[in-house]
Structure formats: structure tokens, C-alpha cells
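By way of example, we now present a protein record of this kind:
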Amino acid sequence: MQNFVPIAHTPLAAGTRLKPLARDTSAAPLPELVHLEDPATQVMTDFSVVRAVTTPPERSIDDALEHMKLSGVRLLLVTDERRRVIGLITARDIQGERPVRLVGEQRIAHDDVTVEMIMTPQSAIEVIDYEKVLHAKVGDVLATLHALERQHGLVAQIDPASGEQALRGVFSTTQISRQLGVPVSDEVPTAHSFAEIVQEIGTP
């Protein structure tokens, strides 16, 4: 059995912006079917080709959740007025215990809970190195998400000229599940060990 290992990941740098869309965004779509040993880039949503879905921090969480549904995503990048990434929020965050606890602790209405109140802040976000992604496999991506205990993994790229970090893309267990044809979303990271996940999916 192939031994897959987590891809190197580091903290998201303060002031990081999104990778600008390329002038030519006609790149081929992600393949419908992948295997664990296929290149990791085949399951990455590339922000240079697909516009990232974002939200301002002051937005209500109910509006943010509706925005996710309309956009077909389960994660929003939170950006400030200068388009810097200051956090992220997922559907699980909104539908979990955090908003309920906040309403009780601060004695506020649910409608008054904003994205900023429950988002994962920039300082707590880990990003995957894009250069390492280029040499990784789909199985390595799953190992990485398992290690991070996340359903999503952000990918950052360093500009060799400026040394600045930019968000290049995102991995999603929902997307990977669809392409593998196996429901791994609910198995990462809680249901089984990663070795059991790989054993269940198998390799071609």
C-alpha cells in the first residue's frame, strides 16, 4: 500500500492576499475521477482560475451561510477592505455550537452574530505550501487534512521576486470525495484512522 504523508504546512502570514485571477482563465476543469496516486493539483481549486468566494467580517452568519449555499461552497475567506485575508469561516462553524454559546454568553440575538465573532482568525490558519503540492499526490492531501483535522486546506504560494505570500487555492474533502467516488468527507478526520481510510479507498 502506498505510504502517503502530510504536505508541509505553515502559518498564514499577516497581510496575505488572494492570488489574482489570470488573464486567461480557460484552464481545463478538474477531472471527474481521480485516484489516490494522482497529482494533488487535480483536486485543488485554483484561485488563479476560479474566483475565491469571500465575505466581509461584519456580515451576519445567516447571510454568510446563504452566500455559501448560493455559491456552492462550505467555506468563505474573510477579507478586509484591502482584500487581505483576515480569517475563514465554514458552514460547520455557523451551524455548530459556537454561535449558540456566543448568544448565551453575550446575551445577544442570533441575528446579531457576525462572521468576525466566530471565524477562525488569520493567526490560527495553517496553509499548505504550493511548491510542495506540485510534487504531492491526492493521498498526501488527505493525509494533510487528517493531520490538520480540517475539512478544508488552504494553499499558499510565495512570490520568488517579492517573497510575499498569496493564497493560491483550496482543498476540500467534499470535492475530493466527489472526484474519488468515495464519501471520505465524514471520515476526515474523525471516523477512522487515516490508514483505514486509505485501505477503504484503495489505489488503482
Q: What stands out?
A: DSSP finds eight helices and ten strands in the chain. The first helix runs from residue 61 to 71. The beta strands are 9-11, 17-18, 45-46, 54-55, 75-79, 85-90, 120-121, 126-129, 152-158, 165-172.
